[in-house]
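hey
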């Protein structure tokens, strides 16, 4: 095994998963995170069956299920909530675990950080990579805290707006706006909510995701109304969100009235990226959102980042040279992630224009089949 010392840049889902997986194979791992507070963005996250499968390989699936809430399937409804379009119950991928799991972003972060520390990852928060210089045999990195280090492999897991991606591939390869924005807020769970509920509106979708026995989040993914700005200030978000939900009936209309606190709302434009292959230059590899950031339509962003970490560790164990490791990683990851990003984008395009010749259910099925295929 030629990869014995690895630096991971970024302490999100992908970076932490890679750290855990690599440490479990005996690789020495350092992880740096630019935020000294190491704050977590978002309210909750869906863990589909393939995410639980990858987490199981890290020894963390049962813990995530215990701290989350089981989701047995997906129910799709019309915007008024009167008509059920589909009501699918999904099989479990891992015996004894739910088909899908909803969990708060904070709880998932704490699980991953604890596991990374337990396996011996050297973690430094509030630190960035200032310089990255390569030779044929190693990567030399200078850090913002004045330290330096040399590594067999550097893994860039620094997110959708990756600085390392710009350093490696240039500023022209960046995340692009999809035309949609996403709204999320945590609310008390509807007692009968045991699956993802999705309401199809004229400009997008709204829905509910269970996160805990007493907690869920309401989400909306929508086309920006004509003439409205994409960027919105935090002040006034609650009133604006209630206004954007006006066309929805049923449970969405009932819970719309609970949206009162601007500070509780997570709002952001939906950007995505699919970096052309290969996702590496020399001995520096990009994973997760830095390489294949997807829109949230199929709930696969976090899942694919976890899979990246698992697959990378397997390739490191299987091969003697860095070139073989990276080539093997790309063979296993590119087409799968491409299907996820492009399929999710197609669903988003249809949500913005129903006249397009796109079947959103077929696109979602294609993504699901790709994601559930063996790693």
């Amino acid at each position: 095994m030629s990869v014995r010392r690895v630096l991971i840049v970024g302490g999100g889902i992908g970076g932490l998963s890679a750290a855990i997986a690599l440490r479990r194979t005996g690789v020495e791992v350092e992880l740096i995170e630019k935020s000294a507070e190491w704050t977590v963005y978002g309210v909750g996250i869906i863990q589909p069956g393939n995410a639980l499968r990858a987490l199981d390989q890290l020894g963390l699936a049962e813990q995530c299920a215990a701290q989350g809430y089981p989701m047995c399937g997906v129910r799709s409804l019309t915007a008024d909530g009167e008509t059920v379009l589909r009501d699918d119950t999904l099989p479990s991928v891992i015996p004894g675990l739910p088909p899908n799991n909803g969990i708060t972003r904070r709880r998932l972060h704490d699980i991953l950080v604890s596991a990374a520390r337990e396996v011996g990852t050297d973690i430094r928060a509030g630190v960035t990579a200032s310089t990255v210089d390569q030779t044929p045999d190693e990567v030399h990195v200078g850090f913002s805290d004045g330290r330096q280090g040399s590594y067999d492999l550097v893994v860039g897991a620094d997110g959708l707006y990756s600085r390392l991606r710009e350093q490696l591939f240039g500023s022209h390869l960046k995340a692009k706006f999809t035309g949609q924005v996403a709204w999320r807020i945590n609310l008390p769970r509807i007692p009968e909510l045991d699956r993802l509920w999705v309401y199809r509106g004229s400009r997008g979708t709204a829905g509910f995701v269970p996160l805990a026995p007493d907690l869920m989040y309401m989400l909306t993914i929508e086309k920006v109304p004509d003439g409205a700005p994409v960027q919105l200030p935090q002040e006034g978000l609650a009133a604006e969100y209630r206004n954007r939900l006006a066309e929805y009936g049923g449970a969405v209309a009932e819970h719309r009235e609970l949206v009162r606190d601007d500070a509780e709302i997570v709002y952001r434009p939906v950007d995505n990226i699919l970096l052309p292959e290969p996702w590496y230059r020399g001995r520096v590899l990009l994973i997760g959102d830095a390489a294949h950031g997807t829109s949230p339509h199929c709930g696969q962003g976090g899942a694919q980042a976890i899979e990246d970490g698992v697959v990378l560790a397997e390739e490191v164990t299987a091969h003697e040279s860095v070139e073989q490791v990276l080539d093997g990683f790309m063979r296993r990851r590119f087409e799968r992630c491409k299907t996820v990003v492009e399929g999710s984008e197609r669903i988003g395009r249809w949500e913005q224009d129903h006249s397009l010749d796109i079947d959103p259910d077929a696109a979602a099925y294609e993504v699901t089949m790709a994601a559930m295929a063996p790693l």
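The two ends are 21 Å apart (CA to CA). Residues 322-352 form the longest helix (31 residues).
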